[in-house]
Amino acid sequence: MSERHGLDRRRLLTSAALGGATIVGASALGGLDADAAFAAPMPSLDPAVSASVFVDGRVAQIRRGVLDVVEADGTHKLIQLTNATSIWKLETVTAEAIEAGDGLYARGVEMPDGSVAADAVWVNIVNLYVTIRGIERSRLHLSHGRNAVVGNIVAKRTTASFRGGALTSDLSQLRIGHHAQVLGAWRPADDSVDIARISVGH
Fold first, then answer.
1. What's the confidence (pLDDT) of residue 92?
2. 3-state percent helix, strand, coil for the chain, nearest multiple of 5
3. What is the distance between the alpha carbons of residues 72 and 53, in angstroms, rounded to a whole number?
4. 30 Cβ partners below 8 Å, 6+ apart?
5. Long-range CB contacts for residues 24-30, cutoff 8 Å, separation at least 24
């Protein structure tokens, strides 16, 4: 497995968007929301739970609840989904929402055969620092470095935070030229991003 650590492990999906161990429950290894994917790993408070491991890559194949994931270095890793696995794809979803070609970031416990029993899986999650270049009713035109990105506004799902304030569904304070952080889910079909949250002035 790659020796990458910390936040660097979570950058793979951002770049993709632009070009006999214990089976644990979700609460054992940490949070499940989108922010948890980018948080520093926390040790389990349960001494019976092994240290968590992380896998990121693209889903090559899906068979009976087992995901064959190809990591950035070409290594294949098998991810076992269990009835305790929480799956995020802009919202909490079931395993049926995962498709071949999706980007994936998973946290879990390594099994004796080298596979990972996942307690949490984030599908196509991206964390982008952008500048707003255009605003439409249902989407934002963003720049991320030299890349243009379309950010889809998803009804009843997209929220915003301004200057550290509470999350709101009111996006009327967004302005062209604002620098912002976007947390969302990449759409492989058209390379756009469904926005879970956009934060301005943090």
1. 87
2. 10, 45, 45
3. 16
4. 36, 39, 41, 42, 52, 107, 120
5. 24/49, 24/84, 24/108, 24/109, 24/117, 24/119, 25/84, 25/119, 26/84, 26/85, 26/86, 26/119, 26/120, 28/119, 29/107, 29/108, 29/109, 29/119, 29/120, 30/107, 30/120
Q: Is this model's pTM higher than 0.85 or not? A: no
Question: What's the average pLDDT block by block, 10 residues per block, for the chain (202 residues)?
Answer: 40 42 39 61 49 88 94 94 88 92 89 90 91 97 94 95 93 96 90 94 78
**In the chain, beta strands by DSSP E:** 53-63, 66-70, 76-80, 86-88, 92-93, 103-110, 116-123, 125-135, 139-144, 147-153, 159-162, 179-187, 192-200
21, 111 contact by CB (below 8 A): yes
- The pLDDT score that the predictor gives to residue 150 is 97
Calpha distance 198→202 (Å, rounded) = 11
